[in-house]
Write a structure and sequence with these properties.
It contains nine helices and eight strands. Strand 1 and strand 2 form a beta hairpin. The chain is an alpha+beta fold. The strands form two sheets. A six-stranded mixed beta sheet has the order 3-2-1-4-8-7. The radius of gyration is 24 Å and the shape is elongated. It has two domains: about 110 residues, no CATH class; about 110 residues, 2-Layer Sandwich (Nucleotidyltransferase, domain 5), CATH 3.30.420.10.
């Protein structure tokens, strides 16, 4: 069986498990012992797109095919290796290594991970502890992010705002096509409060650049617009772990 045939079988099996068996991305990843990012990527493509994807990978990988044994050996020994680190190792090991883009290296490393079923496993040790259970309506966390979404004529970047209640884990999501400013972020807050029919007592932010302009001796300095907004709602306070804004008007439920 060729490598292409093996990949096609994997692709069809992932779609079967998802559509017929109703398994989640995480469940399929665990069942097939493959990376969750691979599962998500395969599920996002129809059969024609996947065949085109395979052809492109085969063409790109011809340029670097002679380096496959080296990359495989490194990934097999250090499966948390990033594409950037692999690029450095290749240039150190092979002085005549061709000049290629980071994207090409990333695709090559990703292809080898798929071919030999080497998932990325972070070896970073993190300490976890139980967070004290909060009362309903006491606290919520606000985060901003961005994501490149697929559409019929290509991809488009969207910027999102998420407010999550810490007790019930209820979420409100709002996204737009332009980066958030203090003004548009305040509008997103108001939409969230309207949808949730109330405002948590405390909102916690992770030092977000949308609102922060500076830090002075441990105290965070907000933009004037957001500072006025927070003060108008009920005042604000700051903490070393991140910006905390006390809003008030605690919701009735959740």
């Amino acid at each position: 069986m060729t490598a292409k045939q093996t990949k096609l079988i994997m692709y069809y099996e992932i779609h079967r498990l998802h559509v017929i068996e109703g398994m989640s991305v995480r469940g399929i990843s665990k069942h097939l012992v493959c990376d969750r990012r691979t599962v998500s990527k395969y599920l996002s493509m129809n059969e024609t797109e996947y065949l085109e994807f395979l052809e492109k990978h085969q063409e790109r990988n011809k340029l670097l095919s002679s380096y496959e044994p080296f990359v495989y050996s490194k990934l097999d020994e250090f499966n948390d290796t990033s594409a950037a680190q692999m690029h450095d190792w290749l240039k150190e090991r092979y002085p005549d290594f061709p000049k290629v883009s980071q994207k090409t290296i990333y695709n090559f490393v990703f292809w080898i991970r798929e071919k030999y079923n080497i998932p990325f496993v972070s070896k970073t040790n993190r300490d976890y502890f139980t967070v004290q259970e909060l009362l309903f309506g006491k606290q919520a966390q606000v985060d901003f992010g961005e994501y490149s979404m697929r559409r019929s004529n290509g991809r488009i970047k969207v910027y999102f705002f998420v407010l999550q209640l810490c007790a019930s884990r209820m979420k409100y999501l709002f996204f737009q096509l332009s980066p958030f400013t203090s003004h548009s972020a305040i509008e997103a807050h108001e939409k969230a409060f309207k949808q949730l029919e109330g405002i948590p007592e405390v909102l916690v932010y992770d030092q977000d650049r949308v609102f922060l302009v500076d830090e002075n001796l441990g105290e965070y300095i907000t933009t004037k617009e957001f500072g006025r907004y927070a003060q108008a709602q009920r005042g604000c306070q700051y903490s070393q772990g991140g910006l905390q804004t006390i809003i008030g008007r605690t919701p009735n439920c959740y």
